[in-house]
Design a protein that fits this description.
6 helices, 4-stranded parallel β-sheet, globular, binds iron/sulfur cluster, two-stranded antiparallel ribbon, alpha/beta
Length: 163
């Protein structure tokens, strides 16, 4: 049975930077959970960040550039946390590989887990298209990544590869 890497905060744990979670209302998700497919993982906690923690954004760059060592992730107080974000991404990729995950469903907008957008690095609420650092690395490793509001698309992909 194929497994699915999922953002840890989608599984009810209040582990986002502001001590909240993201609720998922989906029969598909409930089925996956009952089938034992879900592999919850939080790259930021794995990298050693606490809860709560300062908000962080990819600043003036993209996740791909960050992973190539030329872009930065910073907290709103200016602290450079790039290395921890890259560590978290690598740990997520390792976990996905060890568990045999075939896709990932991740919390959109996060500088780690975003799959369609992230915040724009100005800490003013603006967004840009693109992925977070973990989502980008998983994508680069060939793992399809989906945001939490496209679970039906993720399930369609799962069925297309024989569940
Ligand atoms: Fe959720 Fe990902 Fe942020 Fe962890 S890093 S709290 S899993 S969005």
């Amino acid at each position: 049975m194929h497994k699915i890497l999922v953002s840890g905060c989608l599984n009810g744990r209040p582990i986002r930077f502001n001590s909240t979670n993201v609720s998922v209302e989906s029969e598909i998700w409930d089925r996956w959970e009952s089938e034992g497919r879900l592999v919850p993982f939080c790259p930021e906690l794995a990298a050693g960040f606490p809860v709560p923690r300062a908000p962080a954004e990819i600043v003036g760059s993209t996740a791909a550039v960050v992973l190539h060592g030329r872009g930065r992730v910073k907290e709103d107080n200016g602290t450079d946390v790039t290395d921890m974000f890259v560590d978290g991404a690598r740990l997520a990729a390792q976990r996905a590989g060890a568990e045999g995950c075939v896709l990932a469903v991740l919390t959109d907008g996060s500088p780690s887990c975003g799959t369609t957008y992230t915040y724009d690095g100005t800490f003013t609420g603006g967004t840009v298209e693109g992925m977070g650092v973990t989502a980008q690395l998983l994508h680069d490793h060939g793992l399809p990544v989906f945001p939490e509001d496209r679970i039906d698309e993720a399930d369609h992909y799962l069925r297309s590869i024989g569940e």
